[in-house]
Request: fold
Amino acid sequence: MEFTVLFLAVAVVMAVAWWGTRTLALTLFALTLLACIATYLHHASDVLKLSF
Amino acid sequence: MTRSLAVTFNALGLYAIALVLLVAFAAQLVLHELPCPLCLLQRIQFALLAVGSILNIRFGPRPSHYALSLLTAVAGAAFAARQILLHVMPGDPGYGSALLGYHYYTWAFIGFAVAIVAVAAMLLFDGQFKEGTKPEPMRTFARAAVLLVLALTALNVVSTLLECGFAACPDNPLVYELLKPRL
Reply:
């Protein structure tokens, strides 16, 4: 579900960058990038099933 | 480099991103290989990479717009590197099938590295940032690139919703959660 929301957020940022204001696009971009990094860190903290 | 030429290069960058998203879709639909969570995150970074170029086309080239692309490409490269390292042990078959000898996450790492070099190369040309020049009217070539990337991202929203449903996406997805027959 979180990946659907992230894709939707990126689509919104693109739409705002194209049709909206620059400041709003930059703000939404920052929030989306931070959300991506937070999602990555959440998954990176999972226990790894290594084969050795 | 003039502002007009820089905008053309940014539009070409958008077409390159669209190509990456199309190849990823082709693997998903033709080979029936569903993207894993880390694969989806890399695909999201490719889409996010487009925002800097869209801003450059709409508002004119600015170093801050290129900075957005650089930040996104570095994050994407880090995510791809993590997946490469997960499968680095000898004997590990990797995730999914290989394309021209490399798995998709390896290609993603190469793609993000190329993006970093390309953006750094674009930043070398100060002429594009001169405010004095009259802004050029928006060309169909650039407008089509923006709409193409936007449409592909919207398709990814639908595809990811079908794949993961309303719960957490499985580590190794085999079926579309929302298309699974209910008992």
Notes: Residues 2-43 of chain A form one domain. Chain A is about 80% helix and 0% strand. The mean pLDDT of chain A is 89.
